[in-house]
Amino acid sequence: MTGQTEHEAFESDHLDEFGDEDAQTRSKSKRKRRFAIAGAVIAGLAVCGIALPFTPLMPVKGVVVDGNDVLTPEAVQAQSDIELGTPMGLVKVRRAAENIVQDPWVDVVTVHRDWPSTVRVDLKERVAVAYLQQPDGAHLIDTEGKDFLIAEPPVGAMELVGVDVENKEQMREAVAIAASISSGARAQVAALEANGRYSFVLRLHDNRRVVWGASEDNANKSLAFETVLQREGAEFNISNPELITAR
Protein backbone atom coordinates (compact mmCIF):
# COMPACT_ATOMS: atom_id res chain seq x y z
CA MET A 1 0.00 0.00 0.00
CA THR A 2 2.77 2.34 0.83
CA GLY A 3 4.55 1.71 -2.48
CA GLN A 4 1.37 2.33 -4.42
CA THR A 5 0.74 5.58 -2.62
CA GLU A 6 4.22 6.78 -3.26
CA HIS A 7 3.88 5.87 -6.97
CA GLU A 8 0.57 7.71 -7.26
CA ALA A 9 2.04 10.69 -5.52
CA PHE A 10 4.97 10.61 -7.95
CA GLU A 11 2.65 10.59 -10.94
CA SER A 12 0.53 13.35 -9.45
CA ASP A 13 3.59 15.56 -8.99
CA HIS A 14 4.56 15.10 -12.64
CA LEU A 15 1.06 15.92 -13.81
CA ASP A 16 1.18 19.20 -11.88
CA GLU A 17 4.50 20.03 -13.48
CA PHE A 18 3.14 19.32 -16.98
CA GLY A 19 0.09 21.42 -16.26
CA ASP A 20 2.22 24.35 -15.19
CA GLU A 21 4.27 24.07 -18.38
CA ASP A 22 1.11 24.11 -20.53
CA ALA A 23 -0.17 27.17 -18.70
CA GLN A 24 3.16 28.98 -19.19
CA THR A 25 3.14 28.10 -22.89
CA ARG A 26 -0.39 29.42 -23.30
CA SER A 27 0.55 32.62 -21.45
CA LYS A 28 3.58 33.16 -23.66
CA SER A 29 1.45 32.61 -26.77
CA LYS A 30 -1.07 35.17 -25.59
CA ARG A 31 1.68 37.71 -24.94
CA LYS A 32 3.14 37.08 -28.37
CA ARG A 33 -0.28 37.57 -29.96
CA ARG A 34 -0.77 40.83 -28.05
CA PHE A 35 2.66 42.07 -29.13
CA ALA A 36 1.95 41.08 -32.73
CA ILE A 37 -1.38 42.92 -32.70
CA ALA A 38 0.20 46.01 -31.12
CA GLY A 39 3.02 45.90 -33.68
CA ALA A 40 0.54 45.63 -36.51
CA VAL A 41 -1.45 48.59 -35.16
CA ILE A 42 1.71 50.71 -34.82
CA ALA A 43 2.85 49.73 -38.29
CA GLY A 44 -0.56 50.61 -39.68
CA LEU A 45 -0.52 54.00 -38.00
CA ALA A 46 2.99 54.63 -39.32
CA VAL A 47 1.92 53.80 -42.85
CA CYS A 48 -1.10 56.08 -42.52
CA GLY A 49 1.12 58.85 -41.16
CA ILE A 50 3.51 58.49 -44.07
CA ALA A 51 0.74 58.40 -46.64
CA LEU A 52 -1.40 61.21 -45.17
CA PRO A 53 0.60 64.16 -46.60
CA PHE A 54 0.07 62.75 -50.08
CA THR A 55 -3.70 62.71 -49.77
CA PRO A 56 -6.36 65.45 -49.91
CA LEU A 57 -6.67 65.09 -46.12
CA MET A 58 -3.56 67.31 -45.73
CA PRO A 59 -3.91 70.06 -48.36
CA VAL A 60 -2.03 73.34 -48.84
CA LYS A 61 -4.20 76.00 -47.23
CA GLY A 62 -1.95 79.01 -47.75
CA VAL A 63 1.25 80.34 -49.34
CA VAL A 64 3.03 82.85 -47.09
CA VAL A 65 5.52 85.24 -48.72
CA ASP A 66 8.18 87.07 -46.69
CA GLY A 67 10.78 89.61 -47.82
CA ASN A 68 8.79 91.01 -50.72
CA ASP A 69 8.55 94.74 -51.34
CA VAL A 70 7.99 95.22 -55.07
CA LEU A 71 6.28 91.90 -55.79
CA THR A 72 2.85 91.13 -54.35
CA PRO A 73 2.18 87.85 -52.50
CA GLU A 74 -0.40 86.99 -55.14
CA ALA A 75 2.15 87.43 -57.94
CA VAL A 76 4.70 85.27 -56.12
CA GLN A 77 2.15 82.51 -55.51
CA ALA A 78 1.17 82.59 -59.19
CA GLN A 79 4.83 82.32 -60.21
CA SER A 80 5.37 79.40 -57.83
CA ASP A 81 2.63 77.39 -59.60
CA ILE A 82 1.48 76.07 -56.21
CA GLU A 83 -2.28 75.64 -56.10
CA LEU A 84 -4.23 75.72 -52.85
CA GLY A 85 -5.68 72.30 -52.09
CA THR A 86 -2.65 70.42 -53.40
CA PRO A 87 -1.60 67.68 -50.94
CA MET A 88 1.38 68.98 -48.95
CA GLY A 89 3.48 65.96 -49.83
CA LEU A 90 3.02 66.59 -53.54
CA VAL A 91 4.24 70.22 -53.48
CA LYS A 92 7.41 70.49 -55.58
CA VAL A 93 9.30 73.11 -53.58
CA ARG A 94 12.41 73.01 -55.77
CA ARG A 95 10.43 73.61 -58.94
CA ALA A 96 8.50 76.41 -57.22
CA ALA A 97 11.77 78.13 -56.27
CA GLU A 98 13.09 77.74 -59.81
CA ASN A 99 9.91 79.34 -61.15
CA ILE A 100 10.00 82.29 -58.77
CA VAL A 101 13.69 83.11 -59.27
CA GLN A 102 12.99 83.67 -62.96
CA ASP A 103 11.39 87.00 -62.00
CA PRO A 104 13.97 89.78 -62.58
CA TRP A 105 13.19 91.34 -59.20
CA VAL A 106 14.10 88.16 -57.31
CA ASP A 107 17.71 87.82 -56.20
CA VAL A 108 17.42 84.84 -53.84
CA VAL A 109 14.43 82.66 -52.95
CA THR A 110 13.81 79.74 -50.59
CA VAL A 111 10.63 77.66 -50.63
CA HIS A 112 9.80 75.16 -47.89
CA ARG A 113 6.85 73.39 -46.31
CA ASP A 114 5.61 74.76 -43.01
CA TRP A 115 3.61 71.79 -41.73
CA PRO A 116 0.83 70.99 -41.52
CA SER A 117 -0.76 73.15 -44.22
CA THR A 118 1.39 76.12 -45.29
CA VAL A 119 4.09 76.69 -47.89
CA ARG A 120 6.50 79.51 -47.02
CA VAL A 121 8.40 81.57 -49.58
CA ASP A 122 11.33 83.68 -48.34
CA LEU A 123 12.52 86.30 -50.83
CA LYS A 124 15.41 88.66 -51.21
CA GLU A 125 14.51 91.17 -53.89
CA ARG A 126 16.93 93.26 -55.91
CA VAL A 127 17.12 96.92 -54.96
CA ALA A 128 17.05 99.33 -57.89
CA VAL A 129 19.45 102.00 -56.63
CA ALA A 130 19.90 103.64 -60.02
CA TYR A 131 18.84 103.58 -63.65
CA LEU A 132 20.16 104.49 -67.06
CA GLN A 133 17.82 106.10 -69.56
CA GLN A 134 18.28 104.32 -72.89
CA PRO A 135 16.36 104.47 -76.21
CA ASP A 136 14.43 101.32 -75.24
CA GLY A 137 13.53 102.60 -71.77
CA ALA A 138 14.92 102.92 -68.28
CA HIS A 139 17.44 100.18 -67.39
CA LEU A 140 17.26 99.45 -63.68
CA ILE A 141 20.59 98.89 -61.91
CA ASP A 142 20.88 96.93 -58.65
CA THR A 143 23.40 97.27 -55.80
CA GLU A 144 25.83 94.97 -57.61
CA GLY A 145 25.76 97.11 -60.73
CA LYS A 146 23.66 94.63 -62.65
CA ASP A 147 21.30 95.93 -65.35
CA PHE A 148 18.42 93.60 -64.46
CA LEU A 149 15.22 95.06 -65.90
CA ILE A 150 13.77 97.66 -68.27
CA ALA A 151 10.88 99.26 -66.39
CA GLU A 152 9.53 102.42 -64.82
CA PRO A 153 12.08 103.47 -62.15
CA PRO A 154 10.77 102.99 -58.62
CA VAL A 155 11.01 105.65 -55.92
CA GLY A 156 14.59 105.76 -54.66
CA ALA A 157 16.27 104.87 -57.95
CA MET A 158 18.48 107.77 -59.06
CA GLU A 159 19.22 108.43 -62.70
CA LEU A 160 22.85 108.10 -63.79
CA VAL A 161 23.75 111.00 -66.07
CA GLY A 162 26.96 111.27 -68.07
CA VAL A 163 28.08 107.79 -66.98
CA ASP A 164 29.69 105.82 -69.79
CA VAL A 165 28.08 102.38 -69.84
CA GLU A 166 31.16 101.02 -71.58
CA ASN A 167 33.40 102.29 -68.78
CA LYS A 168 33.04 99.49 -66.24
CA GLU A 169 35.09 101.27 -63.60
CA GLN A 170 33.06 104.46 -63.80
CA MET A 171 29.82 102.47 -63.68
CA ARG A 172 31.05 100.54 -60.64
CA GLU A 173 31.97 103.78 -58.85
CA ALA A 174 28.62 105.39 -59.62
CA VAL A 175 26.70 102.37 -58.34
CA ALA A 176 28.84 102.28 -55.19
CA ILE A 177 27.81 105.86 -54.43
CA ALA A 178 24.13 105.19 -55.08
CA ALA A 179 24.17 102.03 -52.95
CA SER A 180 25.85 103.81 -50.03
CA ILE A 181 23.00 106.31 -49.64
CA SER A 182 20.02 105.29 -47.49
CA SER A 183 16.75 104.63 -49.28
CA GLY A 184 15.08 107.65 -47.68
CA ALA A 185 17.84 110.05 -48.72
CA ARG A 186 18.15 108.42 -52.13
CA ALA A 187 14.50 109.23 -52.82
CA GLN A 188 15.42 112.94 -52.74
CA VAL A 189 18.02 112.56 -55.47
CA ALA A 190 16.92 113.19 -59.04
CA ALA A 191 20.23 112.25 -60.65
CA LEU A 192 23.84 111.31 -60.03
CA GLU A 193 25.98 113.12 -62.59
CA ALA A 194 29.47 112.14 -63.63
CA ASN A 195 31.41 115.39 -63.42
CA GLY A 196 34.66 114.45 -65.07
CA ARG A 197 36.38 111.11 -64.82
CA TYR A 198 36.58 110.70 -61.04
CA SER A 199 34.04 113.13 -59.64
CA PHE A 200 30.31 112.94 -59.13
CA VAL A 201 27.55 115.42 -58.26
CA LEU A 202 24.11 114.73 -56.79
CA ARG A 203 21.26 116.78 -58.24
CA LEU A 204 18.24 116.86 -55.93
CA HIS A 205 14.60 117.09 -56.91
CA ASP A 206 14.46 120.64 -55.50
CA ASN A 207 17.36 121.62 -57.83
CA ARG A 208 19.98 121.77 -55.09
CA ARG A 209 23.39 120.29 -55.90
CA VAL A 210 25.75 118.31 -53.73
CA VAL A 211 29.32 117.74 -54.88
CA TRP A 212 30.27 114.21 -53.87
CA GLY A 213 33.68 114.05 -55.43
CA ALA A 214 35.38 110.72 -56.03
CA SER A 215 33.74 107.41 -55.20
CA GLU A 216 35.67 106.90 -51.97
CA ASP A 217 34.91 107.13 -48.26
CA ASN A 218 31.30 106.68 -49.37
CA ALA A 219 29.97 105.62 -45.98
CA ASN A 220 31.07 108.88 -44.32
CA LYS A 221 29.94 110.94 -47.30
CA SER A 222 26.53 109.31 -47.03
CA LEU A 223 26.29 110.49 -43.41
CA ALA A 224 27.38 113.97 -44.48
CA PHE A 225 24.70 113.94 -47.16
CA GLU A 226 22.06 113.17 -44.52
CA THR A 227 23.26 116.28 -42.66
CA VAL A 228 23.16 118.42 -45.81
CA LEU A 229 19.53 117.51 -46.43
CA GLN A 230 18.64 119.28 -43.17
CA ARG A 231 20.38 122.53 -44.12
CA GLU A 232 19.45 125.57 -46.16
CA GLY A 233 21.52 126.27 -49.24
CA ALA A 234 21.69 125.81 -53.00
CA GLU A 235 24.98 123.94 -53.32
CA PHE A 236 27.09 121.85 -50.95
CA ASN A 237 30.43 120.12 -51.16
CA ILE A 238 30.92 116.92 -49.17
CA SER A 239 33.98 115.64 -51.02
CA ASN A 240 35.65 115.94 -47.62
CA PRO A 241 32.88 114.63 -45.31
CA GLU A 242 34.58 116.14 -42.25
CA LEU A 243 34.46 119.64 -43.75
CA ILE A 244 31.10 120.35 -45.39
CA THR A 245 30.99 123.59 -47.33
CA ALA A 246 28.00 125.45 -48.71
CA ARG A 247 27.26 128.41 -50.91
UniProtKB/TrEMBL annotation:
<dbReference type="GO" id="GO:0051301">
    <property type="term" value="P:cell division"/>
</dbReference>
<dbReference type="InterPro" id="IPR013685">
    <property type="entry name" value="POTRA_FtsQ_type"/>
</dbReference>
<keyword id="KW-0131">Cell cycle</keyword>
<dbReference type="Pfam" id="PF08478">
    <property type="entry name" value="POTRA_1"/>
</dbReference>
<keyword id="KW-0132">Cell division</keyword>
<keyword id="KW-1003">Cell membrane</keyword>
<protein>
    <submittedName>
        <fullName>FtsQ-type POTRA domain-containing protein</fullName>
    </submittedName>
</protein>
<feature type="transmembrane region" description="Helical">
    <location>
        <begin position="35"/>
        <end position="54"/>
    </location>
</feature>
<feature type="region of interest" description="Disordered">
    <location>
        <begin position="1"/>
        <end position="26"/>
    </location>
</feature>
<dbReference type="InterPro" id="IPR005548">
    <property type="entry name" value="Cell_div_FtsQ/DivIB_C"/>
</dbReference>
<keyword id="KW-0472">Membrane</keyword>
<dbReference type="InterPro" id="IPR034746">
    <property type="entry name" value="POTRA"/>
</dbReference>
<keyword id="KW-0812">Transmembrane</keyword>
<dbReference type="Pfam" id="PF03799">
    <property type="entry name" value="FtsQ_DivIB_C"/>
</dbReference>
<dbReference type="GO" id="GO:0005886">
    <property type="term" value="C:plasma membrane"/>
</dbReference>
<feature type="domain" description="POTRA">
    <location>
        <begin position="58"/>
        <end position="126"/>
    </location>
</feature>
<keyword id="KW-1133">Transmembrane helix</keyword>
<dbReference type="InterPro" id="IPR050487">
    <property type="entry name" value="FtsQ_DivIB"/>
</dbReference>
<feature type="compositionally biased region" description="Basic and acidic residues">
    <location>
        <begin position="1"/>
        <end position="17"/>
    </location>
</feature>
